[in-house]
Amino acid sequence: MASALRRPQQLARASRQFTEAASLSRALSRRPASIPRPLFAYARTRQYATQPEKDGDKPGSPASGMEHLYQKSSPMSPSQPPGGPKKPDNDGKSKLSSEEIQQLDEIFNLVKKGMPASMAQDVDKFLEKVKRDGVPDELRKAMDETAKEGMSPARAATFWRLTTQMARQTADEVVNERKDSKDEQAKQQTSEDPGPGNSKKDGNKKKKPDELFPGMSGMNFDLSQFLISGFVAYLMYRLFVPTDNSREITWQEFRNTFLDKGLVEKLVVVNGNKVRVHLHRESVASMFPESPAAQPGFFYYFSIGSVEAFERRVEDAQNELGIPGSERLPVSYQQEGSWADTIFAFGPTLLFIGAIMYMSRRAGGGAGGGGGPGGIFGMGRSRAKKFNMEEGIKVKFNDVAGMDEAKQEIMEFVSFLKEPAVYQKLGAKIPRGAILSGPPGTGKTLLAKATAGESGVPFFSVSGSEFVEMFVGVGPSRVRDLFANARKSTPCIIFIDEIDAIGKARGKNAMGGGNDERESTLNQILTEMDGFNTSEQVVVLAGTNRPDILDSALMRPGRFDRHISIDKPTMEGRKQIFNVHLKNITTSEDLELVKGRLSALTPGFSGADIANAVNEAALIAARSQASSVDMSHFEQAIERVIGGLEKKSMVLSPKEKKTVAYHEAGHAICGWYFEFADPLLKVSIIPRGQGALGYAQYLPAGGADAYLMNMKQLMDRMAMTLGGRVSEELNFPTVTSGASDDFNKVTRLATAMVTQWGMSSKIGYMYYPNASESQEAQFQKPFSEETARNIDTEVRRIVDEAYKQCRDLLEEKHNEVKIVAEELLRKEMLTRDDMVRLLGPRPFDDQGEFNKYFGAGQAPLGGGRTDNPQPGGIGDSMPPKEGGSNEGPIPPPLGGPQDNPAGAMFKKDA
Length: 910
Ligand SMILES: Nc1ncnc2c1ncn2[C@@H]1O[C@H](COP(=O)(O)OP(=O)(O)OP(=O)(O)O)[C@@H](O)[C@H]1O
Hints:
The chain is α/β, with parallel strands linked by helices. It has five domains: 2-79 and 245-337, name from scop; 93-188 and 202-240, no CATH class; 385-565, P-loop containing nucleotide triphosphate hydrolases (Rossmann fold, 3-Layer(aba) Sandwich); 571-641, Helicase, Ruva Protein, domain 3; 654-907, Methane Monooxygenase Hydroxylase, Chain G, domain 1 (Up-down Bundle). 48% of the residues lie in helices and 9% in strands. The chain contains 32 helices and 18 strands. The strands form four sheets. It has a six-stranded mixed sheet. Strands 9-11-12-13-10-14 form a six-stranded mixed sheet. Strand 5 and strand 6 (274-279) form a beta hairpin. Helix 6 crosses helix 9 (223-240), helix 25 packs antiparallel against helix 26 (711-731) and helix 25 crosses helix 30 (814-827). The chain binds adenosine-5'-triphosphate (ATP). Adenosine-5'-triphosphate binds at residues 400-403, 440-446, 543, 545, 577, 580, 607-608, 611.
């Protein structure tokens, strides 16, 4: 009663303060919709009243004596909602008021800017329907409750359910409408054009919902529906809980403006530090319709130091106002997380689940992926490029030089495909595939490309590594897809480059766990290759550098029936390859001579090295602004490919230069006077490449590619390799670290002689693999301790013999060493002609190609220039072992030319 008695003056004060509050917060209420209040608010309520409630009293019901304020006749009674009362319609829907519709449009227009156009279109359609038919009563009720009490998980679920239902219904209706109109159209067409082609079939053909209404069609619970429903739920929420604004006030304002006037419905203590003031909105709205405080979702709040102090204050205030215990304000307590808290709490989990779904759908390939074999993102689809003869590939067999046998084999495959009948008539089965193997750069890919260019059948090219992905199941799926595509275009060829990426022997190197995927990819290839029948004319070619590690199941007849090995080119092969690449080069030199000289200079070069050297020559010529590429450019280019860049900027001290000169002179004299050593081509003391201070180039003894070496050649080669160090010993008081590379070569040669080539009587005819050849040998030596000791002694003996041979010669030729070294110091580079001038002709005849291209009557190497040293020949010249890598010891025991000559170099450090 006390509050009722004070009403007149209180209302007067309230009117002033409300007007003030309303004008202050109008700006707030007009700003764009903000993010709704936290979804997850946990409330516990306790009645602050000190006296028991009366029966029927509800928290928030008008305090006794205040009931008149809430009667319809009172000035503070709730006003009609703007736009007229909400009319529940007959099918449980309530129409939106014009203001609500306007608001909905505003929010949608704002948010659709950041939305994909198709989605915006769908949501727009949905909203049209909502505007026309209204929203379910249940939804409005849930919204009203949310506006009053905030969002809770249960309400969020209700929104979700209802909006999803609405979206689904709308989609169905639109689909049906469209279908009807299409049917109508079809009927009309049929009646207008009753021709035979216009069959009933077309008119009655059921369109899939997708075709009619791409966005929401069918309403499978897919990602786009998920997004649309989520967005619609948000729009609805924003519509009914339009503002979540709040404004901070002080305790005094609260007391004077609200509490004293009996406008407070209840107080909510949030997180123990803030009190949200719930007002009797109807009362406020009827008096001050403009005030934001009249809108649902708007709250005043004030901060408190401690809950106890706040409780005391409220109690005192109510005591002062004389409010009886039974009418006191209810106070409840809530813990609310902010949006950021909610996102932080659930974000990682959602991200994790999302990522797993995303990956499994990407990787899933077939089932359920929604996009055929590729899955929705096309991950499982093969990346193979398809070429036809007409399009793309310009490489022809003529562009592939120096591998006639391989070309012939491949051509056979092509003719199998083109004229299978010729072979089938004789009862032959078409081979399934061929493996092209060989060292890097020997033209395997080029050969396959040329096959594509010549064969006239479709050609699918893919690299083995393209089957390897981090996602499980992608590899096999891509293999399936590749073969499925190939079968559609038979006859055709599939080329898998670097097949070792997936074709490694199964079960080996099983450590690390990453093998399962690779193995299943390989198994899929095996299955697919078995899967063709003879009428399916698909041939699979595969390229690899490591045929030794391939799974034997791949290599068995019926899969890769043929094994085509492509070695480094021979002298003749190199000539042909130079021929191919020189075609594009502008040169006025005699091409025959250029090809001959260059191929003699490049033992161990692969096709790729040759292509690179020719290109380098053109670049060097361009750099020196020459109008055509001449011999000296080619020679410089070859040096550069072998020895690396000249380092003119690296200045050696005179003392160091002298050491290098004597070191190189030692090698040169040995090469000159040992019968089976490699004849010198050029020696230089200009630093180049990685730490090489001096550099000498030789050609293989015998003037051609060497496939075999006898003991004499080996001993001469070792003695020559030691020539540098021996010369240092003989000419200086101390030695340097520059001979380490020479020692490495000598030791490897001697070890190979003892352990592999049966050249030591003490060890006998035994073969002991070295660590790089066999994994077992890395951990356990394949010989006894005693044999190990014997190997050591024998290797030492051989090296000592070579040393003695070298020392004897250099002691004898002490003067010659001095002459060559001094000349080298003066000119920095000596050619074979300089050696002849200084020492007289070499006492042994030069043979073969060497004589033909570098002998008497031929232009000196270097084209008369004095500053272009050439690469050299003592080297890591071990060809690939039977199916093995190139890392073995030294010269070629059997089968195959020398590897890339590494040059005899005086190294900067050990
Ligand atoms: N026989 C050849 N005739 C002409 N050019 C060749 C020949 N061999 C190699 N080349 C040149 O070398 C380049 C590289 O060759 P390619 O890619 O075919 O080597 P690869 O054997 O497939 O090497 P990798 O094993 O490293 O893949 C070719 O583009 C071509 O220019």
